[in-house]
Amino acid sequence: MQFLKFTDKKIFFTADTHYHHPNIVGPSVSTWKSGFRNFDTIEQMDDTLANNINERISEDDILFHLGDFAWGDRNVEWFRKRIICKSIYLILGNHDKEIRKRAKLQSLFTKVFEFGTEILINNTRFVLCHYALKVWHQWAQGSIHLYGHSHGNLPASGKSKDIGVDTNNFYPYSLSEIINEMEKIPLIINDNGEGID
């Protein structure tokens, strides 16, 4: 995994936007699992996703998107153009096939990661991945694991969290929201009372 370091920036996290993905919209549109979401139209879902990101994140902030950005190549470009934030780091998800294949789409992002990355923000380590991990680098020393993919259906383990839009009313999470929540979770220790790395 690659490693990045940040200080004194407004940083946000999200995943699983699935912009313009018809099978996740809602029962009136989707053919898959009743649509999972409850929007009446694909345009309503797309507008909500873009507007909620832009409501919370300014042009000079940083957004980490943990995969499943948009459905199809044109929609990747459309969605990216709608987001005012200039710095988006993307970790590829299972539905990001077009981005994975095309350098032109990858160039729309600050950086694209195939599997995941580690970042250090003001001395707090984050392990970011599209998929949930059972253990991660320095998990027993308090590092935080953020993931998507499961749309809120997978319980967190230790200092980990599904930060997909389906877990936050279609809004991204701020760094302070994540830190405040994780500070309440105790470190995982083994039967001897010692941390395991």
List keywords for this structure.
5-stranded mixed β-sheet; Purple Acid Phosphatase, chain A, domain 2; 21% helix; alpha/beta; 197 residues
Helix % is 10-25%
The CATH architecture can be named as 4-Layer Sandwich
Question: What is the spatial order of strands in the main beta sheet?
Answer: 1-6-7-8-9
Model regions low in confidence, pLDDT < 50 over at least 5 residues = 191-196
> Largest beta sheet, briefly?
5 strands, mixed
Could you tell me the strand content as a percent range?
15-25%
- SSE succession: EEHEHEHHEEEEEEH
Quick description:
The protein is of the alpha/beta class. The chain is built from five helices and ten strands; from the N terminus they run ββαβαβααββββββα.
Would you kindly provide a written description of the structure presented here, covering whatever features stand out?
The chain has 197 residues and is α/β, with parallel strands linked by helices. It has one domain: Purple Acid Phosphatase, chain A, domain 2. The protein has 5 helices and 10 strands. The strands form 2 sheets. It has a 5-stranded mixed β-sheet with strand order 1-6-7-8-9, with no helix packed on it. A 5-stranded mixed β-sheet has the order 5-4-3-2-10. Helix 1 links the parallel strand 2 and strand 3. The longest helix is centred in the first third of the chain and has 15 residues. The chain is globular. The relative contact order is 0.18. The C terminus is likely disordered.
